[in-house]
Each structure stands twice: as C-alpha cells, then as structure tokens.
Amino acid sequence: MTFLQTNIQTLLLWFLIASANVSYGKVTNEYSATTVELTFLSNEKRMSGFIYIAEGQELHPTVLLLHGYPGNEKNLDVAQALRAQGWNVAFFHYRGAWGSEGEFSFRNAEQDVQVVLNYLMDEKNAKNLRIDNKRISIIGHSMGGHMAIAGILDNQQVNCAIAYDGANLGANDIGLINDPKTEIPWKAYSDTLFMLNGWSAEKAVQETKTFARELNLVNRVQTINSRPVLLIGADTKVIPMEFHIKPLLAALKQTKNSKAFFELINDDHSFNTSRMALIDTTANFLSKNCSGN
Fold this sequence. Notes:
- The protein has ten helices and eight strands.
- It has a single domain, classed as Rossmann fold.
- It is α/β, with parallel strands linked by helices.
C-alpha cells in the first residue's frame, strides 16, 4: 500500500467517525444533565470542585461527595449513578489537597465541608445549579466518612449522611494516627502524601494528638437530632470496625429517636469488587430516608 493510499484511508476513517458523531449526537437543551466546574473560597483559599447536575428543570436533592486520605478513590461512579436517579452530586478537594490552595489539615477539612455546604445552600447558588437546598445530604469515604458525619453534626440543615468504611479521626480520644494497636503504618504513609500541601507525618501525629477529643465523633453525636445516618463497613484492618465504626454506631443509636443504620459489605476498603452493591445500598438509603418524596 502506498503512502498516498494510507493517508486517503486514514482521512476516510476520520470522516466516518466525524459523521457518526454528528449523526448520533444527542440534542441538548437548557435542562439537560450537565457538569459545572466550581471554585469554593475557604479562608480566602480557592478549592477546586464541580457538580453533576441531574436532568430536568426542577430543583433536585443534592449530595456532597467527600473523598478520603488523600483521595485516590473518588467514588465518581456512585456520583454518576445517583445523577441518573435524579440527584445532583457536588465534589471538591479540601484546602491543600490535589491543587486546592492553602494547607491541608483534618480540622481545616471539617471547616471546608461547611464552606461548601453553605455555598450549596445559598439561595442564588441553589437556583442556578438546580439544587433543592432543603434536601442536601453528605457521603464520604474513609477520612471523608469522618468528614460526612462531622458535616451533618455541625450543620442542622443537612438531611442525611453516609460513611463508607469511615474513620473517626479522634477515635477513643487517641485518634487514627496515634492508635498503638493499628496495623497500618499511618505515620510513614502520611509522609508520602505529596498531594496534600504542607502536610507531613509529624503534623498528622500532632494534630490528632492535640485535638483528639475535639475530633472524636462519639463526643459530638448529640447534635444529630434524629436525622438518618448510614455507616457502611468493609471490615478491614484499614479502618478497624471495633475502634472506629462500632463505637460511633453505638453512640448514635443511643441518641433520642435515633435513625442510625449499619450495613456490612464484605470487601476491601475501597469496595473494589462490590461497586454495584455499594451503589444500590447508597441509592436505596437516600431514596427511603433523604429524598423528601
């Protein structure tokens, strides 16, 4: 085959691909499903984020999806599945994480969650993004599970929260990093997290040691006020259930008119072989307890 023939075939192939895209491209309208990039300001530092907006003109129930430590697993398959069921899903990176400005810390991340929640609940922002700001829930994975529970405890306007194998960063008033029984080398791991600006093992140890009681979610459960919470455990050594999940579940269940639930998905920390089970469990809980329908 000559050079000219090869180039003609290549051009023909590209023409067919382009024609197919034009022919089968879906016509969009003002209220189609879409993605909007967002910038949130926390203590004058810019945090990167976005929101998946569900199809339809109406205001949608909305989930704030929180990543873990450092956030390699983002659970965006969950986000896309929820959007297909009529939910908006917002996502962001905490200060100092993955290019967001400022320095990372656990307490900063708790504050950042409240900044984003306030943004989503603002009347003007909610209208522009088709958010029903009376139906906002939080989902978080691992460290993000801590942030999800802290988020609902610190904000009475949040409807529901779900933690995926969630940590309690102040567990037992000791904390994740400082637990002498942990089998995970959290200190050494913390020193490898170059995507967390200004962070180190020394800072991780110091923050969780100094502020363990403040970070301990068990000490904060009285503000739940009967709002539904689901803890999903993976039963791994990454987040030991006996140290993190079971004490928090027990404390939540002891609150007045408790709506605390637990599900076990027997998988690894990121639920790698159980994604559909994770999505179904999430969607069913939200539909039953949090959609307002």
